[in-house]
Amino acid sequence: MLKLYYAPGTCALASHIALQEAGATYTAERLDFKSNQQNSPEYLAINPKGRVPSLVTDRGILTETPAMLAFVAQSFPQAKLAPLDDAFAFAQVQAFNSYLCSTVHVAHAHKGRGYRWASDEASFADMKRKVPETMAACFSLIERNMLKGPWVMGETYTICDPYLFTLSGWLEGDSVDIATLPKVADHRKRMAERPAVKKVLADES
Amino acid sequence: MLKLYYAPGTCALASHIALQEAGATYTAERLDFKSNQQNSPEYLAINPKGRVPSLVTDRGILTETPAMLAFVAQSFPQAKLAPLDDAFAFAQVQAFNSYLCSTVHVAHAHKGRGYRWASDEASFADMKRKVPETMAACFSLIERNMLKGPWVMGETYTICDPYLFTLSGWLEGDSVDIATLPKVADHRKRMAERPAVKKVLADES
To answer: Of A7, A76, A141, B99, which is most buried with the most CB atoms under 10 A?
Structure first.
């Protein structure tokens, strides 16, 4: 039995949707970030990074969204969530997810978590001011060069799609007008119509 | 025929070593960062992100280190650079590489590339001052919780090892004393003895 630790509004949504799409049997446990539960001794024993998501499996605990998404795709091959028999196509999926993880999510995180990388309030404010610009640049690249349409990888839905949906859900709060990104906007609408996405959004709300 | 674009001192070293360890037939083309060659029209046509590494394959171009490392492991299975038949073990490999990519490399990048996330010189200086602390924290977690020893995943050398070697090579420049990290220091020594590592370091120098 798989157990996902998540918090609403975080990147854990991607893995949550992927588990649901895969038809996995799993439970989802919510952490309360307001009371800093992610840094409680109990949770740090599960994930010493103090972050979500974490996925408890029979073999041990996994962290890091790109790794968890690929694990779900490989563990439930019948759901066809990644091109598992094609190393190049699989690498394209991973490259997309790696970009979201290491560049897009990081750009967003400078809005509210500047203390990770600096010490002065003035620096935090400076970082925060730049987020609309950096997120717009990231999503402009996604719109022009990466999102093939209708799904990220083209005609086939993959583990890239719930991850993009998760991060594109931050655009409004980051003051990026999604109307300037028609393919991303269409992708959001298409995702919102999927039963697995509706179910997970209801469960997290 | 594979072609790797790299620049010395960058994270492209990890993929370069992996290609050499895999026994791949490849060429390596150096970019000159001093003349900003990574943002030339010619290179942006290859990688619109203007970063290294990029890997040109018969099927198209790949970017993002974790994706490229897994691609090398999957394309040269006889080199046994990842546990390809074990989804959980493969996910552990990917989780490690994802952490290096999205947290450790990002922490390091705040030393010289603060302009990615802020606009004021004072913020850049603030970010730069914090790098020794953030890099020490990242590598303390690696030392305590992640590096099994002698290799990252234990007894078996994987695609995690050249990536860790690449980032641990930045510690001295980031003012982190590697003597406080005995397992990481041992890993560096062990890596430096490998013929593939010696070959690549000579080729890049």
So the answer is: B99
Tell me the two tokens of residue B106: 């990002």
Q: How far apart are CA B68 and CA B79, in angstroms?
A: 15
Closest partner residue to A95 (CB to CB) among B64, B106, B129 is: B64
Can you tell me the distance from the alpha carbon of A33 to that of A35, in angstroms, rounded to the nearest whole number? 5
Altogether, the residues listed in chain A come to a count of 205
Other beta carbons less than 10 A from residue A183's beta carbon = 17
Measured between CB atoms, which of A62, A122, A134 is closest to B117?
A: A134
Q: Which CATH number fits domain A87-194: 1.20.1050.10, 1.10.10.60, 3.30.2310.20, 1.20.120.520?
A: 1.20.1050.10
pLDDT digits (tens, 9 = 90+) for B55-92: 999 999 999 999 999 999 999 999 999 999 999 999 99
Architecture of domain A2-80+199-204: 3-Layer(aba) Sandwich (3.40)
pTM metric for this prediction: 0.98
| Closest chain A C-alpha to B171 CA, distance in angstroms | 16
ipTM: 0.97
C-beta atoms of A98 and B101 within 8 A: yes
